[in-house]
Amino acid sequence: MNKIKSYKELISLNETLKPLMGMRNNTNFQYRENDLKEILVCGGTGCHSAQSDEIIENLKTSIKNNNLLDKVKVSLTGCFGFCAKGPIVKIFPDNVFYVNVSPNDAEEIISEHILKGNIIDRLLFEEPTIKQKVKKHDDMSFYKKQLRIALRNCGVINPEDINEYIAENGYIALGKALSSMSNEDVINVIKKSGLRGRGGAGFPTGLKWESTLNASSHEKYVICNADEGDPGAFMDRSVLEGDPHSVLEAMIINGYAIGSNNGYIYIRAEYPLAIHRLKVAINQAREFGFLGKDILGTGFNFDIELKYGAGAFVCGEATALIHSIEGNRGEPRMKTVSSSKKGLWSKPTCVNNVETYANIPAIMLNGSKWYSSIGTEKSKGTKVFALGGKINNVGLVEVPMGTTLREIIFEIGGGIPNGKKFKAVQTGGPSGGCIPSKFLDTPIDFDSLNAIGSMMGSGGMLVLDETDCMVNIAKFFLEFTVEESCGKCTPCRIGNKRLHEILTKITEGKGCEQDLYDLKELAETIKDTSLCGLGKTSPNPVLSTMKYFMNEYEDHVIYKKCSSGSCQALLNYFITDKCIGCTKCSKICPADAINGKVKEKHVIDNTKCLKCGACLDSCKFNAIVKK
């Protein structure tokens, strides 16, 4: 491929390549006899680890064996978002969505669906609430309320084929910016769009770009923060795996807007597939002339380098990340001077995360008015959430700001499995807060979540049901924070350790009322005095659970009981009248704590019981309870 030398050449190539995507984007596509049928197979990390590569190979083999090479095309794509049901396979022109596909299903997909036109019922998704099979993903409750902007190309294009990205108007926003807009024009579009950073802090992106542009220096830097460390969060990884060119394009636009020629993507080394796709995309972008010198014949130079993080959570904080790129220990600094004035190598630096960048080309193409019409007054656009925990539909969800928690959990997420009751939802990752059911109708945006003691964070959303103990949940997140604290400031290094010790004492039934007072006072002190965002937000799980679930803390401390049945030290097991005397529990008990004769009700000696739960798991008659 020769380098594209002008915006005009790019437009011409875009028009030539558009038919590549006609079938995938148009639900009313008129299929003709000579058109290729298409099979898309998810190649995100989740499906990749569940043998999606083997599915692709088996599909290709079956296509060859059935002499269909000129009739059917198999393509790799990025993540469809419905990760718990992967591997996902999608068939065009029928627009049929198959879930939980295995390599052994490949031959049947070709012989039944492709050759005979028979939809394979057992591979269709079944709606958990109505127990009905659904053929098209557009009809699934998981997708109905979603609006995909950052994820617009994930599950649509082959992330390793730049032609498909260009066919989807890729790099057109860059061409438009370089050929007809000044630096200020670009920044004004981003400012007017209302886009706020999706990494957690929610700082207005346009203002950050403007501040870096106005900083006086002949050398400036662009950084993409791809150090996604929240447990359970994978939205940035999915964007990089499914649509890496959108991030590259946005970074180049960012470089043009602020007057920078150098960009870095700081990505954790635990993301090998994302790193591979980025390397492929960077090489392709250089080959086509979107990176390097004289981009699109405009005289603008920009290139991007990958930097690998070692998996330290604190390196998601901008100043710690900058220190790590410089070769120093990844520790934060006091933000007396912003990175836009003095960042990498003490030069003005613009740091945005992956999801923020993924929105930029769409904003440049569709305009600030379009983007600002989506969302709430102070939080524009959409947000991607990693929805997990006690929920039927686990996966990535992108919704307009202002969508309520109830809509996400019960309509998109399909509600709580096994008839259990909703108890709380934890948003914002390990530094977020737990939100009780009375706030389910809260419209989600940066400010409303902060107002109820939680935060947007990077977008983790963990649903909890009636069997979750909120004291134990707070301890769980503190364990992560204690492990990941860089140790530079005392409140975070020592304070969080003490918080965790008090929580452990309470969950073991050794707490006293003074512990509750100490817990709250110490959490507030850590929040007020820590150096960086990690320390300042780390007590959120403790403070929010104490605010909304104080009765559970009091149960543990005063009555020495855990009402949800999570804290082993506070539990006792009992055998009810349902026992028929089958003797299975007594045979499996490792402590010989269960006594009874055949066909007679058994009894547990709680002084001997190890509380391992083996008896509960083994009983087929639901005769054993814990309380």
TrEMBL record:
InterPro entries assigned to the protein according to its UniProt record, in alphabetical order: 4Fe4S_Fe-S-bd, 4Fe4S_Fe_S_CS, NADH-UbQ_OxRdtase_51kDa_CS, Nuo51_FMN-bd, Nuo51_FMN-bd_sf, Nuop51_4Fe4S-bd, Nuop51_4Fe4S-bd_sf, Thioredoxin-like_sf
Domain 4Fe-4S ferredoxin-type: 570-599, 600-627
PROSITE patterns: 4FE4S_FER_1, 4FE4S_FER_2, COMPLEX1_51K_2
Any Pfam family: Fer4_9
Swiss-Prot/TrEMBL keywords: 4Fe-4S, Iron, Iron-sulfur, Metal-binding
Chain segments annotated as coiled-coil in the UniProt record: none
Recorded family membership: Belongs to the complex I 51 kDa subunit family.
Protein name: NADH-quinone oxidoreductase subunit NuoF
Native organism: Tepidibacter hydrothermalis
